User: Fold these one by one.
Assistant:
Number 1:
Amino acid sequence: MNYGIADLKEATKRLEEAVKHIQPEDVDMYVRLVRNIATQIKNDFWAEHVEGTPVVIQPAASNKNEYRLINTLEFLYKPMFFNNVFEGREIEYYCKERTEELMESKAIDAHNDFWKDHDIIFGTVYGSLPLELLTKDAMGRLVRCGWKKTNVDILEPRRDLDDNQVRALAEQKFRHYIIIKEKETKTFLILRYHF
């Protein structure tokens, strides 16, 4: 269901009534509803009116033997609608919102369990997890919050590359990626996101 401004006004009116009548559970519910509707309106607006930087999709296969494709998995990711994570406080707000959405959808444990098995070296994606770790209910809730599905290539760089060389390779080849180091095997992996 696509929400519009009228839905946002109605949700805000109901929130105001819940505050007026001191109904804590309803206040929480309407705050989440207002946030979700506003996020959807923003996502729809950006999709329709804001042009993104054109992306050249690089093939996953490397003809220079720099890396090899191990697998492709479906992930859910939280889109970012700001260009520079180092300017302002946008990344702080984004991370707070991401954590709240993961907690509300009961997906925070799956998210944390997945990421604690890996050291994150560097990346350009700040909210994602494999679809196979989510319940249908959690996935549905995250999608309603604006999270999107994408395919992610799991790439293994050559073993003789250090972390700086792996980072340079990823920066040169891909726009959306996370470089991780598996704690158990000490192997670098590049998660290359298709969006």
Number 2:
Amino acid sequence: MAISTTSYSPKEFMFLIAEQDRFGTLEGASDNAYHAVDVDSISTPSLNPTQALDVRTGSRVLQAKDFFQDVIGSVKEISVSGTATTAVLDLLLENIMEESVGDASGIYTVTSQSNTTSIGTGDSGGDVAGKILSIVIKSGKSDSDLSFRDCVCTSLTLNGDVGTEGGRIKFSATFQSGSTVVDLSDDTTAVDTHFESQHNYFMSSWVAGYRQIDGIADLVLNSFSCTVENPASFQGLASTGYEVISRAGEISATLDATVKYDATSEPFFANFNAQTNNASTAAAATILNHQAALANGAFGISMPLTFLTNVALNEGDVMMLDLSVKAVGSGISSATALVEIAC
């Protein structure tokens, strides 16, 4: 057999994502739209097969008949990073923040009283709307797409830096699926919605009065990184993989930022040192936005109550401060937001 002289550019590969309507069934080409992600990089999916490579009795050598592999009881993990465009950000925020249906307001919220949720075999329609995703990594080579069903976003980071692409908002996301891989040689999924640059967001839209971290506003902000994590666990096992996906772990929201060290930001050291155990009055609001309230169509982040978890000097061309905060709830029966993100 002769060698192949055909080569493929990494830029010929695409990352497609669609809202899935039925647990266990990859979203069809004629159903919900597959959105192309404006990717910086596509990581190789972790298929995580279970393998047994132990040498068995009777030999010092691993024999072919001793090899064992299982792909049913494994959790697949997929990572991607790129530019935060409107359509894709809507899907990601809806999924990780567990909005019940596509949110027309464009403002996605995790409340202080968020409860455990589960979906699984037999669920469809409104039961799974926004809660599971189909992902296709489309190859430059025909009949070589990698297709995954029943995916949930477990970690989403939104970040920006004034020195990178004019402060354009970027993202990185991690997905998990407990179902068996649909196909590793597929070629049936097409792009329904391409990304467009006019659907980008920029740090420059935030005004000084609402560049506020832990209660201190009017900050000169150089960079930020906001991470929302909502872990998934998988239960039961059938021929198609795990039967139930549960969201039972801590939903957390953290924000890291680098700001200019000046008279406005200098009090962070004292504030950090003065925080008191269980003192809800010590918690303060963090908001990055163009106005007091988040709005559809404008990227913004709001954490009504936060505590400082780090304050540190950062030597650059001028002295900067590295800040870290974590969002906290207002009480287990409170409907007050833990975190809100608008796009």
Number 3:
Amino acid sequence: MDEKPQVALIAERIRKEPFNMLTNNCLRKSFKFRKECRKIGIEVGIVFALVLTRCDKFPLPRYVVWFHGWAVVDGRRIELARPLDEKNTANTFDIDIRPLVAIHLL
């Protein structure tokens, strides 16, 4: 059985879960994703990073520093915090976030 479609289905289901900074944030969703993928024999890495991103919520664009997490499958970044077409609290897309410092958890 091809495992990649299953990975995409798991990721999409987790993305659709409501985001909450305290109870269901990007890091928690990444660990949930890893747990479910391991059940079907797929290894998943998790990246926890200090990131710098542009924040368009102010009259003039500002850059803000915050923490963000995502999963990695076969070297490919999998964003899980929210649906891919939904902007985050800084009014940018999660996939555009680049890490300043990243910790790769196996």
Number 4:
Amino acid sequence: MDERTKEEILSRARFAHDLTEASYQQNPSTKGDAGWVEKQRILLADMSLHLLQTALRNGELSTDDLKRNLYSILTISDQLLPGHRLKTVADDLYGP
């Protein structure tokens, strides 16, 4: 990917990230509320944008950042896809 394209994607991702974080912070739902799943979907989108930024950042790919991004995505997704043991997979990223 050329540098101009990468910078354009990252610029748009920063804008999307700001909107997503603002939406998450404005959502008052707590676990058990009717709006909880929607709030978790917003959080999943936020974490996905973090993954995009990690993947396209200049220099070597940070394995620590990648693990952190994937851990968050899998942990949130575990609530949205029960029965698939995604939290177990997430925990294995930091296994023994």
